[in-house]
Write a structure and sequence with these properties.
The protein has 339 residues and is an alpha/beta fold. 42% of the residues lie in helices and 17% in strands. The protein is built from twelve helices and twelve strands. The strands form two sheets. The protein has a six-stranded parallel sheet, with helices on both faces. Strands 7-6-8-9-10-12 form a six-stranded mixed sheet, with helices on both faces. β6, α9 (197-209) and β7 (219-222) form a beta-alpha-beta unit. The longest helix is centred in the C-terminal third of the chain and has 17 residues, at 297-313.
């Protein structure tokens, strides 16, 4: 079937094509269009199933009404909370969302940014897989003139939402040290070792300050998949001098640690304390409930989208940076050291 056009709507409603356009774009206040005419046009639009051609609208306005969003890991619920915030705010402003993920890989991140930039998007929100974009990618984004917002743990050349875990990691380590723990491990499940320094550096600093030798910090690198975290924890917890406290770089891997401990007959927190990061929704429904570090992830997505939309309206604004706090949430997975 032939797709209905504005002309078809106008002919059936007995009005001009311009009148249909005014009604569709909610500009009936610009010209004298009666309520009766407006309702008749809307009724015909519904009867014909007319849908505006967004490509044509983009060409006319120069705005595709589409926001590109890049996330590091499509499997981690933490990032879906950000997606929810971006999508909710974008929809309210009449924008669609185009999503890509980098699998926490620097090369794939660059590829995804290039791919999104080739699309007719209005602007781009980037949740980085690494602590910094490549210089080539930064240059390309700056040259494009397209609004960009970064969500990262450090200042940017673009508008940015700063979201780091440093202070909250210190709080988590202090919590464990105050409970008498002296034997630690850090499950560093990342695709590249430059990720997660906002957690790893405070971890080292707090253990150094407590007089625990660097050789006993037990940072174990693995991949981002829960199975890799499980296998890493399962092996670690069978060693002669197994840790009494494990810090995992995110909640998904902390859940893997809990499963490994249970399979080995260890009780949490009696035999082992476990801390995660992100406070995904599942964390509060586990048995035991997971001690973790909370961030307002949905709000981060909302704020990033607001910055982008403001930049679209006023490209001459100075670069803006917003900081979003994180805090420790103590639940049932941490307790006094067993010895």
């Amino acid at each position: 079937m032939k797709r209905p056009t504005q002309s078809d709507v106008a002919k059936r409603a007995g009005v001009s094509r311009a009148t249909v356009s005014y009604v569709l774009n909610d500009r009936s206040g610009d010209v004298a269009i009666s309520t009766e005419t407006r309702l008749r046009v809307l009724q015909i639009i519904d009867e014909l199933g007319y849908q505006p051609d967004t490509r044509a609208q983009s060409l006319r306005s120069g705005d595709s009404k589409t926001i590109g969003l890049l996330i590091p890991d499509i499997h981690n619920p933490h990032f879906w909370q950000t997606v929810e915030g971006v999508e909710e705010e974008a929809r309210k402003a009449g924008y669609d969302l185009l999503l890509a993920h980098s699998n926490a890989n620097l090369n794939l991140e660059d590829y995804c940014i290039q791919s999104l930039s080739r699309r007719t998007i209005s602007g781009l929100i980037i949740i980085k897989a690494t602590n910094a974009l490549s210089s080539k990618t930064q240059k390309r984004l700056l040259q494009s003139g397209r609004p960009v917002v970064e969500c990262s743990d450090s200042p940017s050349q673009f508008d940015a939402i700063i979201t780091h875990y440093r202070d909250a990691t210190r709080e988590a380590m202090r919590h464990l040290l105050d409970h008498g723990h002296k034997s630690f491990a850090f499950i560093n499940g990342v695709a590249q070792l430059v990720v997660g320094v906002d957690r790893l550096e405070p971890y080292h600093d707090m253990l150094d300050a407590a007089g625990i030798a660097k050789s006993e910090h037990n940072v174990i690198n693995c991949g981002i998949a829960p199975e890799e975290g499980y296998q890493t924890a399962y092996k670690l917890l069978q060693t002669e001098n197994r840790p009494t406290a494990i810090v995992a770089i995110n909640d998904l891997l902390a859940i893997s640690v809990l499963r490994a401990a249970a399979d080995l007959g260890l009780k949490v927190p009696e035999d082992l304390s476990v801390v995660g990061f992100d406070d995904i929704e599942l964390a509060r429904y586990l048995n035991p409930r997971l001690t973790t570090v909370f961030r307002e992830t949905k709000a981060e997505g909302q704020q990033a989208t607001k910055l982008l939309l403001e930049r679209l309206k006023n490209p001459s604004l100075p670069i803006r940076t917003l900081s979003m706090p994180a805090k420790l949430v103590v639940r049932e997975s941490t307790g006094p050291a067993p010895y």
